[in-house]
Structures are given as C-alpha cells and as structure tokens.
TrEMBL record:
Species this protein is from: Lentzea rhizosphaerae
SUPFAM superfamilies: OsmC-like
UniProt name for this protein: OsmC family protein
Top-rank lineage group of the source organism: Bacteria
Gene3D superfamilies to which the protein is assigned, alphabetical: 3.30.300.20
Signal peptide: none
C-alpha cells in the first residue's frame, strides 16, 4: 500500500511500508515528481528491473539504464504512450538479436506496469461519505 500525505501547497509525500518516500507535486515544481513523471518512472523502472539479471548476465557488464517520456494527447490530459529505451553495452554479445528477443519477451510477460498499462487499468476514486444527522432523513 502507498500512503500520500499533504506537506504543503501542492506538495505531497508518498511512502511505502518499507520506509521509502518520494515527493509529489505539480509539473515543474522543484524537488518533486509530477504524477505523470511517476507513471513514466514506473514504466521505465519496471522494464529495467525486470530485465536487469537477464541483460547483465548476457552482456557481462554492469552498466544498464533506462530513459522514458510520456507522449501526451493533443489536449495534454492523457498519456497515450510511454516509450522506454534501455541502454546497455552489446560489445561482448554474440547474438544481439537473440538478446533483444528475450528482453522484449521478459518485459512483455513479467513487467507488471507495462502489462497493466496495456490493459488500461482503472483507478476507481473513493471519497468520504458525509455524516448523516438526525435532521437529515437520508
């Protein structure tokens, strides 16, 4: 579970049960991630975490990184794509195409974030119910 608490004007801190935190704010706000940036980070992070062991074992290297960005609709109110680019050294790989195939397959099968985005997961919003009083018959 993730808990998000307001810490100032347009400033929030998300925390998990393991004690990790991340600052959330509006786009461009110093020292924080916007919600869309967190979505992009989740997509890229899931791909790189999912493929890390596979890539490093086959490349024999230690360098691995990911870059991603949100492609938004013309209105700017929807993310329509999150292209993720993984970077690693192929100089010691005998068959780069085979590595590409297994990395793509691993991310498509095991990356929960990517799979969820492809399924267009919903995010139902629950709001507090108003307290009923004796004067309020409903």
């Amino acid at each position: 579970m993730i808990e998000i608490e307001r810490v100032g004007d347009h400033e929030f801190v998300a925390s998990n049960e393991r004690g990790a935190t991340v600052r959330i704010g509006r786009k461009g706000q110093e020292g924080s991630f916007s919600p869309v940036e967190l979505l992009v980070a989740a997509a890229a992070g899931c791909a790189v975490v999912t493929s890390e062991t596979l890539i490093l074992r086959r490349t024999g290297g230690e360098e691995l990184s990911a870059v991603a960005d949100a492609v938004q609709s013309e209105s700017g109110n929807e993310v329509i794509s999150i292209p993720v680019t993984l970077s690693y050294d192929l100089s010691s790989v005998d068959d780069p195409e085979a590595l590409e195939t297994v990395v793509r397959r691993a991310v498509e099968q095991f990356c929960t974030v990517t799979r969820t985005l492809k399924q267009s997961a919903t995010a139902p919003l629950q709001l507090p119910m108003p307290l009923q009083t004796a004067e309020d018959p409903l």
